[in-house]
Amino acid sequence: MTQTAFPPPAAEPPLFPEAASAKKPGKRRRGRHNTVIVSVLALLLAVTVGAAYWFLEREAAGLARQAESADTLLTQSEGRVADPATRQALAEQLTAADDVLDGTAFVDRLPGQAAEATEDLIAASDGVWASMVERARGDITTGRDQLEGAMARAEKVYAATESLDGDELTRSALRSALDSAEVTHTRTRDDRLAGAALVQLEQAAGDLGARRAELSSTTDSMISAQDAATCPAPDQLWTPESGRIPDQRLAPVPWDTRYRVRADILDSLIALNDAFRAQFGTDLTVNSAYRSLADQTGLYDPSSPIAAAPGCSTHGLGLAVDLGGGIQTFGTPEHEWMRANAPAHGWLHPGWAAPDGRVPEAWHWQHEKSPAETL
Questions:
Q1: Phi and psi of 4, rounded to 5°?
Q2: What pTM does this model have?
Q3: Separation of alpha carbons 286 and 299, rounded Å
Q4: Beta strand 347-348 with 364-367: parallel, antiparallel or unpaired?
């Protein structure tokens, strides 16, 4: 029986034609999604890189500003610190900062590296500032001590010139300088400068130095004026201490305790006496040594050049002795021995007392610590 061939069944139309047609562009949509994701990631990466760049640049700018400030401080602090090591530490931190800014490529710079260098610079700068404050306070302490010494000397001169014929205008200027010094001394006490800024401390130290210089100059002027009025001879010098040496600064001559010299030169006189006794078999004959102001006043005769005016004699300083036992006569063996040997022990025969001097006094010998004008 012959079979009849039937054609294959026709494909049935889709139930929802629009759904079938929608499946075809699916691959393109997924491609667009991938593109968006890549773009977003790229954008995020760009933002991250930009933020990192901005952060590093900001750190570097801060370090550069701090380095500039530290460099200025390093220059200005020269000679103004208590501890030079603080400036050395700051210089080293500046070098380290330069290495970060100029010696490290930007791409190799790590976040926080510049910030750390900035902190190190700040710490080193603080160390310099603290050392400058310490130096200023130390200068104030030294300045106050020096001013106190100048004030004591000025007060001594002021008191010693009372009732003396002299330059009253200069004496009035000395009183004014003393008063100004007292004001500055009080104003620079520690309790007055507690919490003071560096500029105030350095100003205070400068004021102390200025007051001391002014007071010392005015005191010297008063001494010169009084010297001119009281001690006209060029080999004499008026001093406020003359005849006013405290007892504790004087010492008796061991072999004749009636006489005293300044304690700090006693050993040299003893050594000279030992050498003289070894040569001549006897001690030095002392006829005069330290003289108080009253002693000198009693000896002084304006009509005679033998005794200096009160305040003008090295006897009043405890630095001179009058000797006998043959020394009091020029040309004797004793006198010639003294001329040859006394200088080795610090004792001199001044030019004004030489045979051709202003007042020939073979007996007068004085220590090398005497004022230069009197030698």
A1: -90, 130
A2: 0.67
A3: 17
A4: antiparallel
Sequence ranges of the domains in the chain: 47-230, 247-374
Of the candidates 116, 135, 139, 141, the one whose C-alpha atom is nearest the C-alpha of residue 62 is 116
Phi-psi domain of 281 (left: phi exceeds 0; alpha: psi -120 through 50; beta: other): left
Q: Which two tokens stand for residue 273?
A: 């006496």
Residue 325 contacts residue 284 (beta carbons within 8 Å): yes
Q: What is the pLDDT of residues 79-104, one digit of tens each?
A: 999 999 999 999 999 999 888 888 55
What CATH number does domain 247-374 carry, 1.10.10.10, 3.20.20.140, 2.40.30.170, 3.30.1380.10?
3.30.1380.10
Q: Which contacts (CB < 8 Å, 24+ apart) does range 304-309 have? A: 305/233, 305/358, 305/359, 306/359, 306/361, 308/231, 308/233, 308/236, 309/230, 309/231, 309/236
Q: What is the pLDDT of residues 2-30, one digit of tens each?
A: 444 445 555 555 544 554 454 555 555 66
User: How many angstroms separate the CA atoms of 176 and 167, rounded?
Assistant: 15
Spell 356-371 as b/e; 16+ CB within 10 A means b.
eeebebbbbbbbeebe
Q: Tokens 């001549």, residue?
A: 280
